[in-house]
Amino acid sequence: MKVPCTTTQAHQPPSLKHRATSFNEPKSVLDLGRSPSPSPAVNKPTPKSEVSAISESLFQSDDGSLHSVDQILNLEDWVWMRELGLHDDSTRIPQFNHSDSQLLPEFPPSHSFVPDDFSLSSDQFPNESFNSVALSNDFHHMNNDDFNFVDVLIRAADCFESNELQLADVILERLNHQLPYPTGKPLQRAAFYFKEALLGLLTGSTRSTHSSDVIQAIKAYKNFANVSPIIMFSNFTANQAILEAVDGSMFVHVVDFDIGFGGQWASFMREVADRAESRRVNSPSLRITAVVPEEYAIESRLIRDNLNQFACELKIGFDIEFVLVRTFELLSLKAIRFIDGEKTAVLLSPAIFQRIGAGFLNDLRQISPHVVVLVDAEGMTEGGTPSFRRSVIDGLEFYSTVMESLEAASVGGSEDWIRRIENFLLRPKIFAAVEAAGRRAPPWREAFAAAGLRAVGLSQFADFQAECLLRKVQVRGFHVAKLQAEMVLCWQQRALVATSAWRC
Amino acid sequence: MYSAIGGGVGIHGDFQRIDGAHLTGDPCLVLTTDPKPRLRWTAELHERFVDAVTQLGGPDKATPKTIMRTMAVKGLTLYHLKSHLQKYRMGKQSCKELPDNSKDASCIAESQDTGSSASSSAKIAQDLNDGYHVTEALRVQMEVQRRLHEQLEVQRRLQLRIEAQGKYLQSILEKAFKVLNDQAAAAATAGLEAAREELSELAIKASNDCDGMVSALKVPSLSEFAVSLENKNPSNLPAQFGDCSVDSCFISNGSLVSPMGVSSQSAAMKKRLRPLFGNGDSLPLEWMITNSG
Description:
The structure holds two protein chains of two kinds. By secondary structure, chain A is α/β, with parallel strands linked by helices. Chain A has 21 helices and nine strands. Chain A has helices at 12-23, 30-33, 40-43, 49-64, 69-72, 75-83, 138-141, 144-161, 165-178, 186-203, 211-227, 229-246, 263-278, 297-314, 325-331, 350-356, 364-367, 388-409, 415-437, 444-450, 460-473; strands at 251-256, 285-292, 317-324, 343-348, 371-376, 454-456, 478-483, 486-491, 494-503. Chain B is rod-shaped, with a radius of gyration of 44 Å. The chains are: A alpha/beta, B mainly alpha. Chains A and B meet through helix 10, helix 11, helix 12, helix 13 and helix 14 of A and helix 5 and helix 8 of B. Chain B: Residues 33-93 form the HTH myb-type domain.
């Protein structure tokens, strides 16, 4: 899954210069109308020599290449934008740009970038051969120009690492022209979202969700679940592992660290009710404690209402509590209510480790969970602390794989829905990944081992279920692999989701 | 080993005594139609067998090999003859009557047989041998069936799980939509007047534009309309990160209309807008909002 791409420090300025002419080609006619941006590099206070050298070269070519825009302009993009009615300058949708901001805001101190990887001279980054096996097939078909945005993005990531925020801003500004919209091949769209995420880091802006967003997100999630096996694989494999562990118990308590919209528990409850009915016993009761991020009020309310209703229809005793991540961070497992006599299951995802580390795993023994299920749908790296640039590269590769698989799975469907799914479901994850990228992510395997968790295999039922699911989806390219008690859903040999079950 | 030929055995009255050569009479073997075909000792074949045994000096003296040579039936193997001979010998030894004709393996060992039911006892003994094979075959078959059954069970359960999840997502979507609508309705009354003017303007544009469109690309006017409506509603102003055109299209489209798909959105929108022309401009904004619920 790792990309063995590298870059040379010494090569950067000349190569950027070399490509400056082509990579500044305006991807939209909008840039024609606009006057060249007022060279923020000049206005910024005391730029480093490297910064000014690069930015000057960039802005010089800006003026020179305007006349040849017709040749350079990508026809596809032009048609697309024309349809959208964006060819007219006056109706130009406000672009999120930083050319107005003269003063760069102070970089949030919570992110401590360690530039240890940055000055590695052993890194080599050959442009043309950025086509390791693990990367999208698109690479093989892209010409040199198209590689630019990936290079530039990585260069921008480097800047974050070395704390050259002004340079990062400049580079991302340029990248805005290259990637104004999430169009093109999956890699390009993924790069767009990563660019946005990096820009977000610079401005420190936070996203607040509104109910209109939530609706779009739910709809996107529903469509995503219908076309791609990713969600169903994650949910049902986890459910099966939990069901087997808590089978027969009258009181089940699940601690869910990544509840999403709660769809998983609806099918879990259905299963529980069916089993109780077939055994002619009273329905057990299910209790869920969901650890949720802040600003999850709307979703929490919806989930509570809907799961309550679902449970009522199935005649299952049900209760759900929401605990804020912040509270959990402070109090660890004491933030959660446990009742004697319950069988407890814990459902984890890497996001929680990225946010608060893996220390709380050591406390798990005290509550003696019957099973701890880990669902990794974020392409988490195996271990060690990857550098910021490494995280961005890995993330870029992972999400472009996800987008590729999504495209393949919804062939024949409207492109519109793919974009919505990417925008409402993948974009927040990318943002979160970039935000967490700088932090030292704990190697979760070591953390699991240290906490005394040992992996248990997934049952044959789960195997059959996964295969059955893939047959249902009827898309070539997906397959399930089993490695060391993990079940991994792959898209063309690249891992998408890895699920595993653990016991104390 | 088995030759897949059917037909009766033609035993001719006279057969030559040959050594190692086959008769040209070409008698055929009768095989059962089981998955694992086994030889059926028909009366004629058995008669031939008995003749051969008698020729060779009785069941004790005759050996399967010599019987095979003597009978000279194509496709008959030593294996067949061994088992048949054994049964024949057992049948010949006993003088007591066989209590029942059950094929029970344990009974056969002790049961006695009358001379006349030699063929039935032979059949029973043969079934004993075959019984072992049958058990094995049954076991394998049961294993296959078990696996098949489990896979069917998995399929069935998976279907139920998918349905449950789908049903849940549908209901949460509807509830979310309702929540938003209530919010929008509450806040929309604030910006009633200004919105109405814009509404009539854009409604004209919208009804001219939309004709069964499927993609968001063709709803610039609708989205503008929706955006303007959104802008009247302060609590719903999305402080969007990276608010590009594609985003606003998505957001505003979903917030105003039924989430059933863009084409039905346009149709629904069209339906609501038509009375606008019929009644002139006296269409209250609330009517728009509540109707979309």
